[in-house]
Amino acid sequence: MANRFKHAALVGKYNALGMRSVLDDIARFLIAQGLEVSLERETALSTGITDHGALTPDEIGQRCDIAVVVGGDGTMLGIARQLARFGTPMVGINQGRLGFITDVAMDQYAQALKPMLAGEYVEERRTMLEGGVWRDDEVIFEGYALNDVVVSRGVSASMVELEVRLGAQSVTHMRADGLIVASPTGSTAYALSAGGPILHPSIAGWVLAPIAPHDLSNRPIVLPDAGEISIHIVNGRDASVNFDMQSLASLMQNDRITVRRSEHQVHFLHPHGWSYYATLRGKLHWNRGAT
Hints:
The protein is of the alpha/beta class. It has two domains: 7-119, Probable inorganic polyphosphate/atp-NAD kinase, domain 1 (Rossmann fold, 3-Layer(aba) Sandwich); 128-262, Probable inorganic polyphosphate/atp-NAD kinase, domain 2 (Tumour Suppressor Smad4, Sandwich). The chain contains seven helices and 18 strands. 43% of the residues are buried.
């Protein structure tokens, strides 16, 4: 079978034990399948692998037609935000613990990748969040998130008081340890721990989940993703906001965080026969007790 792809980028969780040998093995496999292979620059520098070219994420987006990401979901989150605007398809090989979005088992990567490189795969695009922090009518921080945007109280401070709006409509006014705005992808992350529902990736909505609210009637709610969510810091010292792994600490009273659907989508490829429900059953142990 002829390959559907020609140039693969290899991205790894470079601080993981034994990652150099794992990446070497996968690189040799890809080359044996007829692909040109380049390593993501930080992966190459940190592992000391010099046998292949090293590219920045922007260069990967411009020059590679597939990215193979080896690690856990955190590794995938980091590169996915950077490649989304290029539409680069990504395959995740799970070297982490849970692996909701890095779904190819490490010991099965050869069997999974070979037909995928020939075009036998399930294609999926997922929405991202984007937004920023406004202070005195000026944007002081901007970010993208595949999982969630989290507003949290300060380490030594009491609860943060927040006013939340969707467009022109008021949603809630709360005191809590924080607030999570999660995408469908992020609904199985922090929002799930905060009592939020799981959203199928195809649903056009966000989960709004309070963290330890003072008023227990403040419950998670699913909002449409067509409007802009605005979170106003009414009161609270040293609060912070986190767009996936991008953080801004020391939010001030009257700061405003805005969150909306990004124009970019993350492009995933899964092995033929992949099922989102099978992923949930396996990762959340829903199949316990099955005969």
